[in-house]
Specification:
The protein is of the alpha/beta class and 313 residues long. It has one domain: TIM Barrel (Alpha-Beta Barrel), CATH 3.20.20.70. Helices cover 36% and strands 18% of the residues. The protein has eleven helices and 16 strands. The strands form four sheets. Strands 3-4-7-8-9-10-15-16 form an eight-stranded parallel β-barrel, surrounded by eight helices. A four-stranded antiparallel sheet has the order 5-6-14-11, with no helix packed on it. A two-stranded antiparallel ribbon has the order 1-2. Helix 2 packs across helix 3, helix 3 packs parallel to helix 5 and helix 8 crosses helix 10. The longest helix is centred in the N-terminal third of the chain and has 15 residues. It is globular and about 50 Å long.
């Protein structure tokens, strides 16, 4: 008997993805060729490393360590600046077009006006979507308090970017708040087309017990990986009960069942980041195939068959 493979396609802000798996920002998004490689390995969409108004070197090494249950990082948002990023995106679009894999440009700035300026300039390169990174937890000393920490600031950035571009915008939120739902509602009201949740948890610290010193050069960094997945799932679940825009669920996804959990919580798409450090870009193909196998085993033919099912039960 011939069986039909499950349909993994998804629409995110009117942009078609061949499957719901999205390369999270900050992971292998530094060049057009790396973005193409991730797409060929099975990602449904790819996100550039966050780009700011001007070039930034980031923090000194060590910047990323595996602490056993995930990663802790303080890379510090290194990037070539928006002018160089426009060129990278232009090349990446040409490489990705034959593959049918959309490109998400991630941006950051230290002022509301800065976000708007970067969004306007990056729009000239015509990425498919723009991610507004207002939630990095390990650069407060240089860039100030993250805009994601209160609803008013988050909404101000969203509104400014909304006025600066016609492209769909995704606002990336932080788990390091008392009420992520209130912030999600605020950015939706300010014009966000989608929400990404969550950025890394923390900042946290890992100390080398032999030297008695923090291992990261920055001392503290954002925590990611399997240990934070239950927090990410809860945030996605809560946000999906409160907003009408799609949510990209991010946090600790490393296998097909993890992706199913995010989708059941209501996510439209699923970000993958830390798992790439351990499994390489090939992890996308593995998670995609595991998701399809799980769907076939449970009699689901499309993602919409079980998306948000946790809310019904």
């Amino acid at each position: 008997m011939r069986t039909t493979s499950p349909d993994l396609r998804v629409d995110l802000c009117r942009v078609r993805l061949p499957n719901p798996l999205v390369l999270a920002s900050g992971i292998l998004g530094t060049s057009a060729q790396l973005l193409e490689r991730v797409a060929r390995c099975g990602a449904g969409a790819v996100t550039t490393k966050s780009c700011g108004p001007v070039p930034r070197t980031g923090h000194p090494n060590p910047t990323v360590i595996d602490w056993g249950h995930g990663l802790i990082n303080a890379v510090g948002l290194p990037n070539p600046g928006v002018e160089a990023e426009v060129e990278i995106i232009a090349v990446a679009r040409e490489l990705l077009a034959p593959l049918g894999v959309p490109l998400i440009a991630s941006i950051f700035a230290d002022t509301v006006a800065g976000f708007a300026a970067v969004a306007e300039r990056i729009s000239a390169a015509r990425p498919d979507l723009i991610e507004i990174n207002i939630s990095c937890p390990n650069v407060a000393a240089e860039l100030g308090r993250p805009f994601a920490l209160d609803a008013v600031s988050a909404a101000q950035v969203t509104a400014a970017v909304r006025a600066a571009t016609e492209l769909p915008i995704i606002v990336k939120l932080s788990p390091n708040v008392t009420d992520i739902v209130a912030i999600a509602r605020a950015v939706e009201g300010a014009g966000a087309d989608a929400i990404a949740a969550i950025n890394t948890l923390g900042p946290g610290m890992v100390i080398d017990v032999e030297s008695g010193r923090p291992i990261l050069a920055n001392r503290v960094g954002g925590v990611s990986g399997p240990a934070i997945r239950p927090i990410a799932v809860r945030c996605v679940y809560d946000i999906c009960t409160a907003v009408n825009v799609p949510v990209v669920g991010i946090g600790g996804v490393s296998c097909g069942r993890d992706a199913v959990e995010m989708l059941m919580a209501g996510a439209t798409a699923v970000g993958v980041g830390s798992a790439v450090y351990r499994g390489g870009p090939e992890v996308f193909g593995r998670i995609r195939d595991e998701l399809a196998e799980w769907m076939s085993a449970h009699g689901y033919t499309s993602l919409s068959d079980f998306r948000g099912i946790a809310h019904e039960r």
